Amino acid sequence: MKTKGFSLVELMIVLAIIGVISSIAYPSYQGYIEDTFHGQAQADVKACGMALERFYGNGFTYEGGEAECTLWSPASGAQASRQYTLAVTPIPLGQTYTITATPVIGGCDERCYSLESNGTESVF
């Protein structure tokens, strides 16, 4: 009589292969997700900069313009699910600004982004 099925050794080999593949794939996936959120934060900072420029065109000051911006990223999502926090810092007299995006979890580690009113961008 011939039995059908898998032996315990065969199942353990398959589980070992799945474990090795998972240990390689998961960190790559996490890096991809972080890069995606970083790119979205850059886009949201630039959108905030455009809103501040429109605000400046109406009153010739940036002061109070941060109300025109969504202060989290992704801006299309709820604040509770934010990955980055945006901060608008107007310089006294309201003539310049700096918008900074910082991750909610963890440090900057080349994942923070800032945009100044003169167009200077920096990643730190």
List the helices and strands and how they pair.
Layout: H1 8-59, E1 72-73, E2 84-90, E3 97-103, E4 113-116, E5 121-123
Antiparallel strand pairs: 1-2, 2-3, 3-4, 4-5
List the main descriptive attributes of the protein structure presented here.
single chain, alpha+beta
Range of helix content = 40-55%
Mind summarizing the main beta sheet? Answer: 5 strands, antiparallel
Mean pLDDT: 93
Strand content: 15-25%
What is the 3D form?
A: rod-shaped
Count of extended strands: 5
Structural commentary:
The chain is an alpha+beta fold and 124 residues long. It has one domain. It has one helix at 8-59, and strands spanning 72-73, 84-90, 97-103, 113-116, 121-123. It has a five-stranded antiparallel sheet with strand order 1-2-3-4-5. A hairpin with a 4-residue loop joins strand 4 and strand 5 (121-123). The protein starts with 7 loop residues before the first helix and ends with a strand.
Brief overview:
The chain is of the alpha+beta class and 124 residues long. It has one helix and five strands; from the N terminus they run H-E-E-E-E-E. The protein has one domain.
